[in-house]
Every structure is written in structure tokens, then in C-alpha cells.
Design a protein that fits this description.
alpha+beta; 6-stranded antiparallel sheet; single chain
Amino acid sequence: MPEGPEDRDLVPEDLFRGFPQGLAVCRAVQDAVAAIGEAGVRVTKSQVAFRRRRGFAYVWRPGQYVRSDVPAVLSLALPRELVSARVKEVAHPSPGVWVHHVELSAPAEVDDEVVGWLTEAWAAGSGPGRQRESGSCSS
């Protein structure tokens, strides 16, 4: 029997099928994370998660959930709350963790400021948790 999408690991191309700008943003985030250090990548039907011992950054397509023209959102788990006009929303799901949602319209928006936040999130992601890896944003 042929292998169906639910029978294999998902890849970012599955999540961003028909949304090339979102996939390009995902690739820019993945490139930035790779330049920072080693991290696992896990793709689900809803997001691309970047992990060390625990998840620290997530790229997702907002159009799956709400009406939006933004091709991708980067969610960053940090040990502090960021104050920036670029942060659309902040959640505080548990003590010591703030999740920041940053809308990204183009790969160029993964700039020095975003890379700085990714670096901080990457360092915080080395805390307790488990690491899983599959998929990537490359074709």
C-alpha cells in the first residue's frame, strides 16, 4: 500500500503547502537557528518546532486559525517578557516562561533583532525537557 501523509514524518513543505512565502520565512528561521547552534526540528500539522531539551521557537501559519495576510508567525519561548513593537502578542503559560508572537512577512524580517531573540530562546531551551527531531525547512 502506498505511504500516505499520515504514515510519514511531516516536513515544513506539508505545513506551508501553497504558501511559499511562509516556507521561505521558515527556512530563514531555520538558517538563523543553525547559525546559533544545534537544535532539533519537529514538524506537526500546526507548526515547525525548534528544540533543544525543550522547544524554544515555533513557526506557524496564522491563516490556519484566523483570517490573516501574514505568511508566518514566529513564537519564541523566553525566560522574560520582551517589550517591542514587533511583538504582536505575549502569553505567560507558566512561571519563568513568556511566549512572544512575532508576525513575519518576509525572510528579511529575520534580522539581527530577531536573531538576538532566537539566540536567547535557544539558550533558554537547554533547560529540562526532552528532545525530539524530524524534518527540516530545506527542500
